[in-house]
Amino acid sequence: MADIELKAVQKAYGPVPVIRDVDLAIREGEFCVFVGPSGCGKSTLLRMIAGLEDITDGELRVGGERVNELPPAQRGVAMVFQSYALYPHMTVAENMAFGLKVKGVDKPEIERKVKDAAGILQLSTLLDRLPKALSGGQRQRVAIGRAIVTEPRVFLFDEPLSNLDAALRVQTRLEIARLHQEHAKASMVYVTHDQVEAMTLADKIVLLHAGKLVEERGSIAQVGSPMALYHRPASLFVAEFMGSPKMNILQATLRQAEAERAIVDLAGIEVSVAVDARRAAIGSQVTLGFRPEHIGVGGVGNVRDAAPGAALPVRVRHVERLGDVSLLYVDFESAPGRAPKVLTVRQEGSVRPQVGTPLSLRLAPESLHLFDADGLAFARSIELPT
Ligand code: ADP
Ligand code: MG
C-alpha cells in the first residue's frame, strides 16, 4: 500500500500556478527525494504534505486516508527544516521533549524516548546544553531528534543539510541514511536542490520542472530510481539536471531511424545511437547527448586509446586536474564559420594533454542519448544498469 498518495495535486498563489498535476505514490518505508532547480516548488509540495500549506486542488492521502483538511499534528508526519527552528531558551533535552509534552505524554516515557533518540544521534552528552552552545551539525541533529521522538509514520525534510559545511554535510547525510535504515517502516520525503544528495539517499527521485516547463508539462519531470534518471532521462531537462559535470549536448540531423538504432549526422560525421527511433522522421532535427564520463579518447601522448565508436575531432582548450580525475574542455567545430562548441570530457587524473592538442573523442552507440525537437528522449534500445 502506498503510504502517501498525491492525486492531481495543484497549488496556486492567486493566479500563479506553482505546483501542477502532481500524481505520486510513496510506499511505506520508501526514501523519496524531491529535487529540482530553485523555485520549482519543492518546499511548497513538502509543506502541502505537512499541512503547512493549503492544497488548491487534488487529493492527498496518508495511510489510505484523505488528509487535505487535517491539521499538521494529526497527519502522523514530522518535519525537519533547513533553519533547525529550535527554541533558544530550552536545552537540547527540552527541545526534543517539547512536542511530546504538548501532547501530554507521561514524563518517564518522554525521558526514555529522548534518551533513545539522543543515543542514535550522538547527543547523549549534550542534553543539558542550550542551542547557542552547539555547532550547526549538532543543532540539526537536535532538530532530527525532535522529529524521531514523535515516532512519525512520515519524516519530512526540507534541505536539512544546506546550512552545514561540506564535511558535516557528508557526515549528516550518512546519519540520515542510517536513520532511514533504523526506521525501516517510516517513509521519508526529503527536499534538496543537490543532485548528489538525491542520488545517494533516494530510493525514488521526483525531479520537478521549473518555469515554463511547469505550464507545458506539469510539475513532475520524471519519477524513478537514481539509476533510471541517470541512464534513462526522459527529457533533455532531466538529462542536463542529473549528472555532474553536465551532459554534453549537440544538434544533429536524423539520417536513419530503426528500432534498434538511429544514425544521425553531426557536422558531417555519421554517429550511430542505440535508441528506438521508429517514431521519428528522417531529416528531423534532433539533439545528441553524451556524458563527460562516457567518452573514450583516442589521440596522442599520455591519452589512452579508446573503444570504437564514432570519432569526433576536437582540440584541447583547457584542462582541470582534480587529482582523481582530469576534466578536459575541448573545442568541437560543429558548424563552419561558427564559434566551436565546448565539450567536457572526464578522464583519469593522470591524463594531462597540452592545450591545443588534437584529440579524437569516441562515442559508443550505447552511451549516447537522443532527444527530439521537443526535448523528449527516444527510448534506449539496450539493457542498462538499474
Ligand atoms: P523551492 O523550494 O523549489 O525552491 P518554493 O516551493 O519555495 O520553491 O517556491 C515555489 C514558487 O512559489 C516560487 O516561485 C516562489 O516564489 C513561489 N511562492 C512560494 N511561497 C509563496 C507565497 N506565499 N506567495 C506567493 N508565491 C510563493
Ligand atoms: Mg525550498
Description:
With 386 residues, the chain is α+β, with helices and mostly antiparallel strands. Helix content is 23%, strand content 33%. It has helices at 42-50, 92-102, 107-120, 136-149, 166-182, 195-201, 212-217, 226-231, 236-241; strands at residues 2-13, 16-27, 31-35, 57-62, 65-66, 77-80, 154-158, 187-192, 204-208, 220-224, 248-257, 262-266, 269-273, 285-290, 296-298, 310-321, 325-332, 341-348, 358-363, 368-371. Magnesium ion binds next to helix 1.
Uncertain runs: 300-305
Strand count? 20
Number of helices: 9
| Rounded mean pLDDT score | 91
Task: Please describe the structure with a list of short key phrases separated by commas or semicolons.
386 residues; alpha+beta; 6-stranded mixed beta sheet; 5-stranded antiparallel beta sheet; 20 strands; 33% strand; binds adenosine-5'-diphosphate; binds magnesium ion
